[in-house]
Amino acid sequence: MHRPGGGGTPTELRILAISGHDVPPLVGSGHSWHVTTTRLSDRLTAELRTRHYSPRTEEAYLHWFFRFVRFHGLRHPRDLGAAEVVAFLSHLAVQERCAAATQNQALAALLFLYRRVLGVDLPWLDGLVRAPEREHLPVVFDRSEVARVLACLDGVPRLVASLLYGAGLRLLEALHLRIKDVDFARSSLTVRAGKGDKDRQTLLPPSVRPALRSHCTTVDRQHREDLARGAGWVELPHALSRKLPSAGREWCWQWLFPATRTYWHEETQQRRRHHFHESAVSRAVHDAVLRARLDKRGSCHTFRHSFATHLLEDGYDLRTIQKLLGHADVRTTMIYTHVLDRGPGGVRSPLERLERLDSPAVPQSESLGGKGKASGVDGGRGDLAKGKGADDLGVGGGGEQAGEQAGEGDHKPGLRQFE
Q1: Which member of 158, 170, 178, 310 is catalytic?
Q2: Annotated domain spans of the chain
């Protein structure tokens, strides 16, 4: 294959252009070249950045673009249409058995490519085999399991995990915190440019404040040492470095969880420090779950699920939890109502009643609810609202524990709307 000026067949040039080489099309006769276009991947990147898509979305869309091109033998997407898109997406669902969310992400990437970059509006994709959608219940730690996992962590991963559980943060939201985002006086954290490029405020747990203050002192000392060596720079969001040229060295803009090493940024000629890498925290949490010998699979995001579930158990309403989590739709928050221990865990199996009836050691009055068959229906009315009669109605655990469980409605009104 030849570069411009050395010839080359149209097929060779098409393969070069799609596979990542900047090869302009041949114009006119002979071997005269004119630079008239850029790579399609560069155009896709430019469109994504113009619309302020996140770096993760940009990475995912480029991934699906290259997979789509390789699937069809390096043919240019302009020469492909709806039939080829359907074939690729159906291959993901049938041969690769991918999840529905994966197929939807690939579909969104290809629709963006054709509509925004190539200017082609694909017709309705008839014949598309959809991956089956399933409703997955999140894995949730109980309080003792959270304590066991945190006890197996130390250093920065322990502090980050404490914020994931204590404030309901996503992993990258915690690692993207800067010094100015922590308000010790108001016990609040400000999440900047979270999911959906939205800002929000959440709580700073009082139990974390002493350790976080000590950590900030250590980070301040490290930053002063970096400044003395001519470093101390951090990346600033968007074009803020042009508006505030020296802000990248100021204390308030430093990462709350900085990396252990610095790096040289060639474009700005600055010695910078990145934030603590997410893979280090994920690996530490994974190892801690194994050392704690839990009987469930857990990750960093499990702390966020546990935060929401435990707030629901404590009686906080869905709207408050939705705001703390940063969900755009309350239906996303409602998934945590399905994992409350007042669901299957709060119902007594009818098999237990049969076993009590067959046991000669249990008095008949107790097996029928304490007051005979009638009391099991009539005697429970009114008393249940006062925290009594849960055992009579057969919805509690039994004894004092059942009375406490049924009586929790007195001081947890936020649970009544979805119980």
Answers
A1: 170
A2: 38-117, 138-340, 347-415
34 among known catalytic residues: no
The tally of CA atoms less than 13 A away on the side-chain side of residue 102 is: 14
Give the pTM.
0.68
15 to each of 10, 66, 118, how far by Cα in Å? 9, 12, 18
Report d(CA 47, CA 52) in Å as an integer.
9
Find the catalytic residue in 215, 249, 301, 342.
301
Could you say which architecture CATH assigns to the domain 38-117?
Answer: Orthogonal Bundle (1.10)
Q: 374-390 pLDDT, tens per residue?
A: 344 344 444 433 444 43
Cβ proximity of 65 and 41 under 8 Å: yes
Say whether 327 is catalytic.
Answer: yes
304 catalytic residue (yes or no)? yes
Q: Phi and psi for 124 in degrees, rounded to 5? A: -60, 130
pLDDT tens string 393-404: 343 444 444 344
DSSP 381-406: TTTGGGT--HHHHT-S-SHHHHHHHH
Instruction: Supply the DSSP symbol for 135.
Output: -
Which tens digit of pLDDT belongs to each residue from 249-302? 999 999 999 999 999 999 999 999 999 999 999 999 999 999 999 999 999 999
Whether residue 405 has pLDDT greater than 90: no
The fold of the 138-340 domain, in CATH, is: hpI Integrase; Chain A (1.10.443)
